[in-house]
Specification:
The complex is a heterodimer of chains A (about 650) and B (about 250). Chain A has about 650 residues and is of the alpha/beta class. Helices cover about 35% and strands about 15% of the residues of chain A. In chain A, helix 3 links the parallel strand 2 and strand 3. Chain B folds into two domains: about 110 residues, Ubiquitin-like (UB roll), CATH 3.10.20; about 120 residues, Orthogonal Bundle (Fumarate Reductase Iron-sulfur Protein, Chain B, domain 2), CATH 1.10.1060. Classes of the chains: A alpha/beta (about 650), B alpha+beta (about 250). At the A-B interface, helix 3, helix 5, helix 6, helix 11 and helix 12 of A face helix 1, helix 2 and helix 3 of B. The complex binds flavin-adenine dinucleotide, iron/sulfur cluster and FE2/S2 (inorganic) cluster (FES). The site of iron/sulfur cluster (SF4) has 15 residues of chain B, from helix 4 and helix 5. The site of flavin-adenine dinucleotide (FAD) has 45 residues of chain A, from helix 3, helix 6, strand 7, helix 7 and strand 16.
Chain lengths: ~650, ~250
């Protein structure tokens, strides 16, 4: 192992308050320093990203009176990937009187994360969850309602209480539009300056503080330096390292990775979530995978034929020749087991040769029972838009033939390391939303990413960043400052390299190949042997990439291939770190399944004695340095998860 | 299948554009329309040519980025379907397909099939929101919203801001987009205090941004991938008349 990394000093979250868990957030808000309202307009904050985390943070910081510059690479802030979230957002409102509470949401999230997250952070998230719903309703987010006019809730992703708020299958869209509208209101008010079609390509660190970014205007190609008193990255997750994922095509790791290369620790990179209900791949042209909302598992039943190689049409397979394997293996939770368990179970039956559809990579999600029980109209009212989407993509009618689903990469729990204040180890660099590692441990519960993004952006960051900004404004930084000039030169050199390279292979062809390696060896199941192999393959492919990649046209125009080239270059380095992280963590936990560490019946087996820590990696060229942050559990005692 | 594509190529905002023909072979009927263009671009790169620029991101019909006029129809032939959700099984071997960008005065071409839709953001900034600064909200259950109103608001809020309505309109009007937002917010109790200032602000910005006027041709609703109906325009007009009368 030591051939891949070196051990460093432990790292600690020095901002985390102590005392009773339900008082910690209040204490932190009280002990953190404030910035006088009249001083706020002297402080400039860069927010990169306009998804739920970025838009909510930028809008709120603008409302508070800071001068905010906000960036996204899409043509409008409203198109950030958050727009695609379907199922819902959790909150401990207990509107259903079904036994929910802040403590229960906290407990479920710590357990769901397989005891690899921080108790303080998670409790804060659960506390804030209720305020988020209030905030969004006040903005006019059209959540689903019942006939009495009150908000509807559903149970989601294996939760035994109904705490999920939703807006049909478009919850992310409606929440993001709320944040986007708040953001545009601040643009009109002059507190936020918006820069669309701009991509951050480097972080500027001056005298140990994050002081700005280098951005490229994607339309003109101009590369400029932006200086501020603090930088917030809300740049989303890195699932696209797998090429095929449910993420939008533009999702990438560049902002986080550039910060990592400047010294920011990257935590738990190997924790990825594979979502069990996606539409299977149909051919080599496949450019992304589409998620079918998890809510489908509330009424759909998952099965495969009992016999391997049974290629009869599903309707011709009699009841007693079907294996409803989730109901069989997990009688208590049935089709609603957590995502990682459902995904691995699907892989297991396909590995046995019992999968259905092209290449045997699929399982059925069958609504026949639900249609019989509730009627077609009721099923259509609940899932009509999802069924329609499925039919558009596959050409098959799910009312008549069971859907085919297969797991796909969906979410990344890992991300830049942050303390309780959401500040990375580089002072002045804050990280929010999916881009940080903070709250979900080794596995995220359904409907909890939207909650975390909005919690970070609306409520946590605007409160914690003031403690840092209280020392500002910081000294002016000129464009010819050594650190600025170096960062800018690095960006320009990289662009010049890609455009000048005398290659013959497209960026996508490399990305697809890298994704294949990651999926094979660092996907649903990982082994020592496979990961070592993957590291070698990635290194070879990376060398090939720099030799043979071809980027047409020039840098002084809209050049989508050039954008992709930079992103894929960073994915190579990230992919290698993911494999090293997965290799060093010889236990299984949450979404990280090491074949060597399983219980007798094939469940993930944690090793708390050796791995109850956050792995925070420091960039050091080929051999990263591992800093461990020990995790302590005062309230929820680690147990082996069981969903039997 | 084998197809002939005629695609609008325009190197930059100020450059002249023209239709260019390409023949593409071996297209799978399971591929999406954009995946078909990916395949074309891979080939162009291999041949040392500049690939076709087009906007896209989610590829599942929700972000509103994709924006192609296909055989004269914004988002192509399939009703209630964005370009990215259109699949090649709609086409057959030997077809010729014309692919152009949105064409509208308020949406200048950036490159090839990519246009600048930032005018939509400016319309929202001019009033398309409810002022509710973070932290000021009452409990979510303090104001019940009748289900019918909530559902109608949701239907209007489903707009993805793609701009197909503008591309389809002979006048290049942004009325359907704007009216969808006015209806969404105006149907909710939270949206009432700013109901009048909202519609006045948004309409003024819409007109200033260079969108044309609405003459009720209905082309917008026919092209809309989210089936936003013309009724929202009726509501905008009523709100606008009331607000203008008050302001006078
Ligand atoms: C299909 C799908 C469905 C989902 N459904 C749910 C659900 O039902 N419930 C739930 O809780 N979660 C869900 N999730 C997860 C959730 O949507 C995301 O985790 C969350 O929205 C991420 O928000 P974010 O603000 O952190 O990042 P994003 O929304 O990804 O935003 C990233 C922003 O950063 C910008 N950006 C990135 N890099 C750069 C750069 N270098 N320069 C400039 N700008 C940059 C982008 O332009 C964008 O504005 C779903 C995810 C997927 C893929
Ligand atoms: S109204 Fe329809 S066509 Fe117009 S922007 Fe909205 S979704 Fe697109
Ligand atoms: S790419 Fe997002 S709607 Fe088509």
């Amino acid at each position: 192992m030591s051939e891949y990394y070196t051990d460093g000093d432990p790292v600690a979250d020095t901002k985390a308050p102590t005392g009773p868990i339900n008082e910690r957030w209040e204490r932190r808000r009280f002990t953190g320093r404030l910035v006088n309202p009249s001083n706020r307009r002297k402080l400039r904050v860069i927010v990169v990203g306009t998804g739920l985390a970025g838009a909510s943070a930028a809008a709120t910081l603008g409302e508070l009176g800071y001068r905010v510059s906000n960036y996204c690479f899409q043509d409008s802030p409203r198109r950030a990937h958050s727009i695609a979230a379907q199922g819902g957002i959790n909150a401990a409102k207990n509107y259903r009187n079904d036994g929910d509470s802040v403590y229960r949401l906290f407990y479920d999230t710590v357990k769901g994360g397989d005891f690899r997250s921080r108790e303080s952070n998670v409790h804060r998230l659960a506390e804030i969850s209720t305020e988020i719903i209030d905030q969004c309703v006040a903005q006019g987010v059209p959540f689903a309602r019942e006939y009495g006019g009150l908000l509807d809730n559903r149970s989601f992703g294996g939760a035994q209480v109904s705490r999920t708020f939703y807006a049909r299958g478009q919850t992310g869209q409606q929440l993001l539009l709320g944040a986007y509208q708040a953001l545009e209101r601040q643009v009109a008010a002059g507190t936020v300056e918006l820069h669309t079609r701009h991509e951050m390509l480097e972080l500027v660190v001056v005298d140990g503080r994050a002081r700005g970014i280098i951005v490229r205007d994607l339309v003109t190609g101009e590369v400029t330096t932006e200086i501020a008193d603090a930088v917030v990255l809300a740049t989303g997750g890195y699932g696209n390292v797998f090429f095929l994922s449910t993420n939008a095509k533009g999702c990438n790791v560049t902002a986080s990775w550039r910060a990592h290369r400047q010294g920011a620790y990257f935590a738990n990179p190997c924790y990825t979530q594979i979502h069990p209900t996606c539409i299977p791949q149909s051919g080599d042209h496949q450019s992304k995978l589409t998620l079918m909302s998890e809510s489908l598992r509330n009424d759909g039943r998952v099965w495969v034929p009992k016999e391997r190689g049974d290629d009869r049409a599903p309707a011709d397979i009699p009841e007693d020749e079907r294996d409803y394997y989730l109901e069989r293996r997990y009688p208590a939770f049935g089709n609603l087991v957590p995502r990682d368990i459902a995904s691995r179970a699907a892989k297991a039956v396909c590995d046995e040769g019992r999968g259905v559809g092209p290449g045997g990579l699929g399982v059925y999600l069958d609504f026949a029972d639900a249609i019989g029980r509730l009627g077609k109209d009721a099923v259509e009212a609940k899932y009509g838009n999802l069924f329609q989407m499925y039919e558009r993509i596959t050409g098959e009618n799910p009312y008549e033939r069971p859907m085919r689903i297969y797991p796909a990469v969906h979410y990344t729990m890992g991300g830049l390391w942050v303390d309780y204040d959401l500040q990375s180890n580089i002072p002045g660099l804050f990280v929010a939303g999916e881009a940080n590692f903070s709250d979900h441990g080794a596995n995220r519960l359904g409907a909890s990413a939207l909650m975390q993004g909005l919690s970070d952006g609306y409520f946590v960051l605007p409160n914690t960043i003031s403690d840092y900004l209280a020392d500002g404004p910081f000294a002016a930084v000129d464009d010819d400052h050594e650190a600025v000039a170096a960062a800018k030169a690095a960006v320009n050199d990289r662009i010049a390299f890609f455009l000048g390279n005398d290659g013959d292979r497209s960026v996508d062809s490399f990305h697809r190949e890298l994704g294949g390696i990651m999926w094979e060896y660092c996907g649903m199941e990982r082994t020592d042997e496979g990961l070592r192999k993957a590291i070698g393959l990635i290194r070879d492919l990376k060398a090939e990439f720099y030799k043979r990649v071809k980027v047409p046209a020039t840098g002084a125009e809209l050049n989508q291939q050039l954008e992709k080239a930079g992103r894929v270059a960073d994915f190579f380095e990230l992919g290698e770190l993911m494999c090293i992280d997965a290799l060093h963590r010889t236990e299984s936990c949450g979404g990280h399944f090491r074949a060597e560490s399983q219980t007798e019946d094939g469940e993930a087996k944690r090793d708390d004695e050796h791995f109850s820590y956050v792995a925070a990696w420091e960039f050091a060229g080929e051999e990263p340095v591992l800093h461990r942050e020990a995790l302590e559990f005062e309230y929820v005692k680690p147990t082996q998860r069981s969903y039997k | 299948m084998k197809l002939r594509l005629r695609i609008w190529r325009q190197p930059g905002a100020d450059a002249k554009g023209k239709m260019v023909s390409y023949v593409i072979d071996g297209v799978s009927e399971d591929a999406s329309f954009l995946e078909m263009l990916d395949v074309l671009n891979e080939r162009l790169i291999a041949d040392g040519e500049d690939p076709v620029a087009f906007d896209h991101d989610c590829r599942e019909g929700i972000c509103g980025a994709c924006s192609l006029v296909i055989d004269g129809q914004p988002h192509g032939p399939q009703a209630a379907t964005t370009t990215c959700q259109l699949h090649m099984r709609k086409y057959k071997d030997g077809d010729t397909i014309d692919i152009e960008p949105w064409r509208a005065g308020a949406f200048p071409v950036v490159k090839d099939l990519v246009v600048d839709r930032s005018a939509f953001d400016r319309i929202i900034a001019a009033g398309g929101y409810i002022s509710a600064p973070t932290g000021t909200a009452p409990d979510a259950h303090s104001v019940p919203v009748p289900k019918a109103d909530a559902d109608a608001a949701f239907a209007a809020a489903a707009c993805i801001g793609c701009g197909a309505c503008v591309a389809a309109c002979p006048n290049g009007s942004g009325m359907l987009f704007m009216a969808a937002k006015v209806a969404h917010l105006g149907l909710m109790p939270q949206g009432q205090p700013e109901r009048h200032t909202r519609v006045l602000g948004m309409v003024a910005e819409h007109d200033a941004a260079g969108f044309g006027g609405c003459t009720n041709t209905g082309e917008c609703a026919a092209a809309c991938p989210k089936e936003i109906g013309l009724d929202v325009i009726g509501q905008l007009n009523r709100d606008f008349r009331k607000a203008a009368a008050r302001a006078a």
